[in-house]
Prior knowledge:
Blueprint: E1 2-6, H1 10-22, E2 26-30, H2 33-42, E3 47-50, H3 59-68, E4 74-79, H4 84-92, E5 97-100, H5 105-121, E6 126-129, E7 132-135, E8 140-143, E9 146-147, H6 152-163, H7 171-178, H8 189-202, E10 210-213, E11 217-220, E12 224-226
Parallel strand pairs: 1-2, 1-3, 3-4, 4-5
Antiparallel strand pairs: 6-7, 6-12, 7-8, 8-9, 10-11
DNA-binding region: 124-222
Keywords: DNA-binding, Phosphoprotein, Transcription, Transcription regulation, Two-component regulatory system
Domain Response regulatory: 2-116
Amino acid sequence: MKILLIEDELKLAGFIADGLTQAGHICDQVADGNKGLEMAMVGNYDLILLDMMLPTLNGLEILKNLRSFNNQTQVIIISALNDTEHVIKGLDHGAIDYLKKPFELDELLARVRSVQRRSLAQGSLKLQVSDLKVDLLTREVSRAGKPVILSNREFALLEFLLANQNNVVTKSQILEKVWDINFDPGSNVIEVHLYQLRKKMDKGYDEELIHTVIGRGYVLKGEVERG
């Protein structure tokens, strides 16, 4: 998932961001409430991890603003404000979970996985295109029965292409959904990752699944079977 972490304790934020990245997620982090709200509104995130006590704008105000503009991105509050009143306020204003500080990273990752499972359950956990099989939860990929080992970023690219099968996706769309805010759009990193993904998935097979559409972008062709 693409996750926004709004947390002003920099050491804790770095620890959480590292853990999320190692678990295969893409994580942007910001320490300021106003900037966090701005990023949340335009960043197309799957999940927001939100501290309550923030400079310039507190977490509850961020949550109120998101919902007032009909932004329904799922939010987990992470806060040292752990009395019942604050928990109730957070949940009543649209958060789906409230994790009290201090907490173990494993517990936070378990809450994130729970959100991911609920999101995936709206579609399907296992996808197949031709002889390519992808398990979105376990992140296992195989082609013609042979395992395909992908990096976290390559898997995110594949997942995005699968979600848009038979539709051309542009570099800017990939940048928005698969890369973080620190990425330099002028670099060729996206092209390099797509080259590596195609090499792992298509090399040695008669049927190519990922195609370059010159001047437009990339497309994964084929009918996706869900099961």
